[in-house]
Each structure stands twice: as structure tokens, then as C-alpha cells.
Specification:
mainly alpha
């Protein structure tokens, strides 16, 4: 194994302390030999290792160094290949830059932010949970409740609904409370929206 492969193995096995020690040694050797590609890769792995250890300060410092060295060369794939942990760390660093420079970006922060934006645009977006299925009700509305719901949707007041259906206003209120309970809301606008989602009302 090369030292960097061994460090990756340590990270995969959650042996963070060993990984950090190995990466530090390898980075010093790479810097002495001016192997900038290796230095950047080590800095990225150090950033991920520190983040895994809960040391966000050192993680972001290592990431900043990696980005500063990478930006002139325009490296993209090097970061993207590290996957979702790198995307999350980079998103956090992006937020930090924005907070620290709320009163105006200096030159370095400006080009680093532009570079980060380019990188984040290339990362695959995390998978979102599937769209929830259609809303269902534990108990269907009665015919009278449906009649009242349709009248509510036309903007009728309780008094007007009572007059149209020839029932007492108190009875209208009772039916409305029942249908609200079945639809899981206590507001007219929400009841109408939910009913439309359920196909109980035409658009």
C-alpha cells in the first residue's frame, strides 16, 4: 500500500487518529518534494478526517488550503471524487466564507467562493426521499359533509350554507368540525386544499 492508500483505509475503518498521523507525515514529504497534486489530495483527506473527528475548525482550515492550491489549476474531479462528505464540508465552508465576508469579499475570498460554487454545481445532489404518496383519510366524508365542503369551497358563509341546505347553523358548524377532523385541519383554506389533493373537489 502507498501511504495515502493506507490513510484512506484507516479512514474507511474509522481509525481517524492513525489516518491523521499518516497524512501529516505524507503531506510533509510531498511538500518537501513539491508534489502539489499529492499535497492537495492529502489536505482534502485531512479535512475529511478532522471533520469525522468533530474538529470542524481544522477541517475547514485544511479544506481552505486545498482549495487555495487547487483554484489556479482548476481542479474539479479531485474534489468531486470524494463524494458526499466532501460536498457537505464544502457547503459548510461556503457558508463560513459568506458569514465572515458579509461586509464585502476580499480578493482571495471572492475567487475561492466562485471556485466553490463551480465545484458544488458539479457534485451529484444527495438523493431525496421519494415524494409522499397521495393523502388518504382514515374515515371518508359523509354525503352531507361533502355538500358542505363544496359550498365552503365556493366561499359561502355558515349562515348561507344553512339556508341553502335548510338546516340550522349549529348543524353546519357540527358538520364542519367533523370534516375538519377527518381532513386533519381546522382551517377552511387548508380543508379545501386537502380535499382537492384527495380528488374530493374539482379545481
Amino acid at each position: 500500500f502507498s501511504m495515502i492508500t493506507l490513510a484512506r483505509l484507516h479512514l474507511a475503518q474509522s481509525r481517524i487518529t492513525e489516518a491523521i498521523a499518516l497524512l501529516g507525515q505524507f503531506r510533509e514529504d510531498a511538500e518537501a518534494a513539491e508534489r502539489m497534486g499529492s499535497v492537495i489530495e492529502v489536505l482534502m483527506l485531512e479535512a475529511l478526517a478532522f471533520a469525522a473527528q468533530g474538529d470542524q475548525g481544522r477541517a475547514l482550515t485544511s479544506l481552505e488550503r486545498a482549495l487555495t492550491l487547487s483554484e489556479p489549476e482548476g481542479y474539479i474531479r479531485l474534489f468531486v471524487d470524494e463524494g458526499e462528505p466532501m460536498r457537505q464540508l464544502m457547503t459548510e465552508y461556503q457558508s463560513e466564507i459568506k458569514k465572515q465576508t458579509a461586509n464585502g469579499l476580499d480578493g482571495q475570498s471572492s475567487y475561492l467562493l466562485a471556485y466553490i460554487n463551480r465545484l458544488l454545481a458539479v457534485f451529484p445532489q444527495p438523493a431525496h426521499s421519494e415524494k409522499p404518496g397521495p393523502v388518504t383519510m382514515p374515515e371518508p366524508l359523509s354525503e352531507r359533509e361533502l355538500d358542505i365542503l363544496r359550498l365552503i369551497a365556493t366561499g359561502r358563509t355558515n349562515q348561507e350554507i344553512a339556508e341553502i341546505l335548510v338546516i340550522a347553523v349549529s348543524t353546519v358548524k357540527s358538520h364542519i368540525n367533523n370534516l375538519y377532523g377527518k381532513l386533519g385541519t381546522n382551517r377552511r383554506t387548508q380543508a379545501i386544499a386537502i380535499a382537492r389533493d384527495l380528488g374530493l373537489l374539482s379545481e
